[in-house]
Amino acid sequence: GNPELPTAVNITWSSINFKTILQWQPKPSGYFYTVEIHGQTTNTRKKCIQTTETECDVTDAVRNVKETYTAHILSVTSSEMDDFEEPPFAVSEKFTPYNQTVVGKPEIQYYKQKGSKLNVVFQDPLTPYTFPNGSFLSVRDIFQHDLEYRLYYWKDQSSGKKHETSRSHTFEVSVDSTNNYCFYIQGIIPSRRENRNGQESLVLCTSVGRNTLDEYRSEVFIIIAVVAIVITLAIVLLVILCKRKKAKATREKEPLNTA
């Protein structure tokens, strides 16, 4: 080993929806970093071997999400790979994905304000982990009943927020039918002491006028189509009548053939 090599500092875990990135400083010059992930019960995993980067995606090395991990960031030279001496390394803080990953933004799929009800349907954020069939696990698949969602909503142009909590993918809340409302959703993990609140979704706002028009749009189209057909028929009839009148007038003007 080479004790004179600098070791990593400012080591941080960054994890959203269980996608976990390890970051540190400084940028290496004349040496490399190799990351070792140590779990309590799992075998040590080496990641980002001999990298010149100062970050490493360790998602697949912390797959057992309820386990607590530490990272050793080794400072190595290329010639040291066969050296049996342990290279200098720095040790990260402990990290437990289940307790520390941040729940990302929920995706709002549908919303409608009809009368005095606001309905919102949303989708769970997905994780990088997959089921055996290849489809991605959502955060709800992992957190189960530890996860709930909160809808914050308020009258447009107002600051007074209300909120509702749900464990399903839908919200239905009572609103004033004459006002537009704005809202967002975020995941919450009430059992946590830290990182309880997830990232906020996009803020969306209803438009009562526009939604009313949407409801009646098909009826409006039918009425317009019927009116157009009636007008077209009226024009066709007028043209036919005009032609008949002209033909009649022409016949009347023609001199009668005398025997």
Provide mean pLDDT, rounded.
Answer: 89
Task: List how many beta strands DSSP finds.
Answer: 17
Instruction: Give the topology string: H per helix, E per strand.
Output: EEEEEEEHEEEEHEEEEEEH
The amount of beta strand, in percent, is: 35-45%
- Biggest sheet features: 5 strands, antiparallel
CATH fold name of the largest domain: Immunoglobulin-like
CATH arch. level architecture of the largest domain = Sandwich
Counting structural domains, the number is 2
Individual helix count:
3
Shape by Cα distribution: elongated
Structural class comes to alpha+beta
Protein name: Tissue factor
Subunit structure: Interacts with HSPE; the interaction, inhibited by heparin, promotes the generation of activated factor X and activates coagulation in the presence of activated factor VII.
Transmembrane segments: 220-241
Domain Fibronectin type-III: 3-79
Plain-language structure description:
22% of the residues are buried. The protein has 259 residues and is α+β, with helices and mostly antiparallel strands. It folds into 2 domains: 9-99, Immunoglobulin-like; 107-205, Immunoglobulins (Immunoglobulin-like). Helix content is 21%, strand content 38%. A hairpin with a 6-residue loop joins strand 12 and strand 13 (162-166). The longest helix is centred in the last third of the chain and has 46 residues, at 208-253. Strands 12, 13, 15, 16 and 17 form a 5-stranded antiparallel beta sheet that branches. It has a 4-stranded antiparallel beta sheet with strand order 4-3-6-7, with no helix packed on it. The chain has a 3-stranded antiparallel beta sheet with strand order 1-2-5, with no helix packed on it.
